[in-house]
């Protein structure tokens, strides 16, 4: 939008001051402050509130636990990664993260990236700036201070910071705490879950077509297998709807189109899954060539919708989850799915997942199971699964389409 002078009511006002209206690093005041480089981004002569300070902190750098009595501390992470603790919450802030820490709440951080972290502090008053001026020394160059640069002793640090409404209340964040906050979830277990669906639907022509109408026990077995797999697909996607998409939408705004597309995929898969579930019930109640054909067709249609979704999820969503979800958040997925599972053979689902895992993944899965679920699997579930799969698997040379057997 452009407005001309003739469109305005007032006349130009003469410039009343000759102060700077912009800065760049070469014209900004800078200090070496407690092992960091602090650059004041407010122009010379401009108001000091809000105070905008560019702070560069070396790897492993961490201030002592402290409280700003009157200041809401906030910063934008420009480069690097920072584990931030505020009160009882610890989070990992990455480039683009804006961290807002309320006044009166103790907090600290630690740089977890291999290189320095660069943060833009935005403060509503100049209390912290005054502590930088009191304790820092003018930077000889716009880089981190030389190694071994002496800083104030602890007594002086506590006293001067306190004079500027910053109370030191504890030690810096430990490396162990920062490492836990920055730990990435092991997301490759998603592939084992996806293989359950890939294998089940690939085997449908053999399993359904091989169950003759005169074999009611075989039909019941195959129908139970697909009924449980379809129910698991439903709760698996519900877990993603509840725990994954909202978090990625919030944390990955640049990927919003991708996330929305995955959500729309779920709607399409759910519609096809309901059709397949109805076909399973129909075939189980009245097995014959027509109902068998309808079931294999419904499962093929579901597979046609589902498999491209799984491919894209593995290529694009799983890496995003590894980068933007915590270990704890990723770990909520299995519990959510199992808590909402309404099939009659939960041990079958556990076994189908486990047989597609590496030994290390199986051990981790067993370790993190709630004790009742672990006892169920060890005492009867594993044996029940092996027995079920021994009956389900037809003698066929094309075993590659069938799930591998062992889930121990």
Can you offer a commentary on this structure?
The chain has 408 residues and is α+β, with helices and mostly antiparallel strands. Helices cover 50% and strands 15% of the residues. It has helices at 127-135, 154-163, 175-182, 189-202, 204-209, 216-243, 245-251, 256-285, 289-324, 327-340, 346-354, 359-368, 371-392, and strands spanning 30-33, 36-40, 51-57, 65-68, 73-79, 82-86, 89-93, 98-101, 107-111, 117-123, 137-138, 166-170. It has a 7-stranded antiparallel sheet with strand order 8-5-10-3-2-1-11, covered by helices on one side. The protein has a 3-stranded antiparallel sheet with strand order 7-6-9, covered by helices on one side. A two-stranded antiparallel sheet has the order 4-12. Helix 8 (256-285) runs antiparallel to helix 9. The longest helix is centred in the last third of the chain and has 36 residues, at 289-324. It is elongated and about 90 Å long.
What does the secondary structure layout of this molecule look like, with pairings?
Layout: E1 30-33, E2 36-40, E3 51-57, E4 65-68, E5 73-79, E6 82-86, E7 89-93, E8 98-101, E9 107-111, E10 117-123, H1 127-135, E11 137-138, H2 154-163, E12 166-170, H3 175-182, H4 189-202, H5 204-209, H6 216-243, H7 245-251, H8 256-285, H9 289-324, H10 327-340, H11 346-354, H12 359-368, H13 371-392
Antiparallel strand pairs: 1-2, 1-11, 2-3, 3-10, 4-12, 5-8, 5-10, 6-7, 6-9
Helix pairs in contact: 1-2, 4-9, 4-11, 6-8, 6-10, 8-9, 11-13
């Amino acid at each position: 939008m452009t407005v001309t002078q003739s469109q305005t009511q007032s006349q130009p006002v003469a410039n009343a001051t000759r102060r700077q209206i912009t800065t760049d690093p070469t014209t900004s005041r800078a200090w070496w402050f407690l092992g960091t480089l602090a650059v004041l981004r407010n122009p010379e002569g401009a108001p000091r509130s809000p105070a905008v300070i560019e702070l560069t902190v070396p790897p492993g750098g961490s201030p002592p636990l402290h409280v700003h009595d009157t200041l809401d501390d906030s910063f934008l992470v420009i480069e690097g990664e920072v584990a931030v603790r505020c009160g009882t919450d610890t989070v990992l802030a990455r480039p683009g993260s804006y961290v807002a820490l309320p006044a009166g709440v103790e907090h600290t951080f630690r740089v977890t990236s291999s290189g320095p972290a660069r943060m833009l502090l935005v403060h509503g008053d100049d209390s912290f700036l005054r502590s930088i001026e009191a304790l820092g020394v003018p930077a000889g160059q716009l880089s981190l201070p030389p190694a071994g640069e002496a800083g104030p002793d602890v007594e002086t640090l506590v006293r001067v910071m306190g004079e500027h409404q910053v109370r030191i209340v504890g030690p810096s964040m430990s490396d162990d705490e920062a490492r836990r906050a920055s730990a990435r979830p092991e997301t490759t277990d998603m592939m084992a879950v996806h293989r359950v669906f890939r294998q089940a639907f690939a085997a449908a022509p053999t399993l359904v077509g091989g169950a003759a109408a005169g074999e009611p026990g075989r039909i019941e077995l195959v129908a139970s297998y697909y009924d449980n797999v379809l129910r698991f697909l439903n709760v698996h996607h519900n877990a993603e709807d509840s725990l994954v998409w909202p978090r990625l939408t919030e944390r990955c705004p640049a990927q919003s189109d991708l996330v929305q597309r995955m959500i729309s995929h779920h709607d399409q898969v759910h519609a096809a899954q309901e059709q397949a579930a109805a076909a399973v019930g129909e075939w189980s109640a009245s097995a014959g060539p027509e109902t068998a054909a309808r079931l294999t067709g419904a499962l093929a249609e579901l597979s046609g919708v589902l498999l491209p979704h799984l491919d894209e999820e593995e290529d694009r969503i799983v890496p995003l989850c590894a980068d933007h979800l915590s270990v704890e958040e990723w770990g909520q997925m299995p519990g959510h799915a199992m808590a909402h599972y309404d099939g009659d053979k939960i041990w079958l689902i556990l076994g189908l997942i486990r047989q597609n895992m590496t030994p290390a993944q199986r051990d981790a899965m067993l370790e993190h199971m709630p004790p009742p679920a672990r006892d169920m699997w060890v005492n009867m579930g594993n044996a029940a699964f092996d027995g079920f799969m021994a009956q389900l698997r037809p003698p066929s040379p094309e075993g590659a389409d069938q799930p591998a057997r062992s889930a121990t």
